[in-house]
Amino acid sequence: MKVFSGIRPTGEIHIGNYLGAIKQWIALQQKHECIFCIVDWHAITTPYNTKKIQKYIQEVAVTYLAAGVNPKKSILFVQSQVKEHVELAWLLGTIMPVGELSRMTQYKEKSQTLKESVGAGLLNYPILMAADILLYQTDIVPVGRDQVQHVELSKEAARRFNQKFGKTFKFPEAYIPEIGAKIMSLQNPVKKMSKTDNPKGCIGLFDRPEIIQERMMAAVTDPGKEIKYDPNRKPGISNLLTIYSLFSKESIKSLEKQFQNKGYAEFKKSLTELLIRSLEPFRKAEKEFSKEKIKRILNSGAEKARKIAQPTIIQARKKMGLS
Fold first, then answer.
1. Catalytic residue numbers, as ranges
2. Mean pLDDT of the chain
3. 135: domain range?
4. What is the pTM of this model?
5. How many domains does one find in the chain?
């Protein structure tokens, strides 16, 4: 089966991105044909820093490699290096209703924030994501829960195209981890972890140990002292238990027993030490992977991606009567 996923290069990647997406890629690449993309065209749909985007692309590539994405097993590339993505997005855009796009949660939320400055790119974001996925005849799309709606729209785009022009695309399915699909902010545990919303609520994969310690010890918990998983009644400690479980590979039940009759401070101290150890490979990789090496890996990946993408575009154009 084919697997496709990608991350926007919009700034330092945090542990929520890693646990919700990248971590699950490593197991998938052992059994499936995996295509992992740095989606820079998606990144420019909202305001961004033109001087920093190349730096962010490098950081995402280092993150993929440090996490265990193997260029010999998986295809790793930058979205804008494979022009077939935007060509298919345009073709799909001719059959997708504007009303359906305007009802997408991401568009509604971000357009309220951006107001008059919102661009057509944000409205068409789900079409580009559908093109990303359908271009490679993808079977599985590893995503967090907040992205399931986009995978469903990709499936709808495939259904509409196949119905109108003849069978061309597979119907992709979202792949969601049992736990960790949505890591919450350390400062506001009822909201998703986001550097944009609150940098102090995040821990970056390349953060120095002192930053990790500072942010973890300041993480919001709940009334009482019980280390108990209960997202509705105790969202703060439940979020920290989820993070601890995913990094330590211990069950939440086991952690509850381990920290029974112990306070939040002791739990946070232990989690801080775990995170510092677990993120050390990312800090090392940042120094070890040169720009030249990353460029070679990404260029090679783009070449492989184009070879898979081109037959799909040729077929879609023929079905639409364009060639």
1. 110, 192, 195
2. 92
3. 2-179+290-319
4. 0.87
5. 2
